[in-house]
Amino acid sequence: MRQDLPPEAEVPVINVESAESQFAAAYLSFQSDILEQNQITDYLIRIVQPRLSAVEGIQRADILGARTFSMRIWLKPERMAALSISPFQVRQALAANNYLTAVGQTKARSSRST
Questions:
Q1: Cβ atoms of residues 109 and 22 within 8 Å
Q2: Which DSSP state fits 48?
Q3: pLDDT band at 18 (very low <50, low <70, confident <90, very high)
Q4: Cβ contacts of residue 69 below 8 Å, gap of 6+?
């Protein structure tokens, strides 16, 4: 399957664990009448998972069935032609600015001095 993944994708990891482990497992379920599934996943990644992982005695806090954000881009051919930009150039710009980051917050440096 690795050859079918995009070059910037992380290598898949398979964890094999014994069912007779000395560690207990708990499953928590989250739902919302307000948030979409990807927004729930975002909240779990940014807020819940770090807090659970910080609790003494918690070995690992995984998110199963995550619905992560993705990006969809609709190109305007007329506007692109006016700017002399090709779809390939758009893809190159996206690929050049794509990065994977650890859970947490990323803040851009401001060009303004305060």
A1: no
A2: I
A3: low
A4: 38, 41, 42
Structure tokens at 114: 């305060």
**Helix, strand, coil shares of the chain as percentages rounded to 5?**
30, 0, 70
Angle at 91 between CA 88 and CA 95, to 5 degrees: 140
The CA distances from residue 20 to 17, 23, 24, 76, in Å, are 9, 9, 10, 57
CA distance 61 to 47: 12
Q: Using CA atoms, how far apart are residues 91 and 43, in angstroms rounded to an integer? A: 29
Distance CA 32, CA 41 (A): 11
Q: What is the pLDDT of residue 99?
A: 66
Tens-place pLDDT, residues 27-56? 888 888 998 888 888 889 889 999 988 888
Residue type, 111: S
pLDDT of amino acid 114: 40
Q: Indicate if the pLDDT at residue 16 is higher than 60.
A: yes
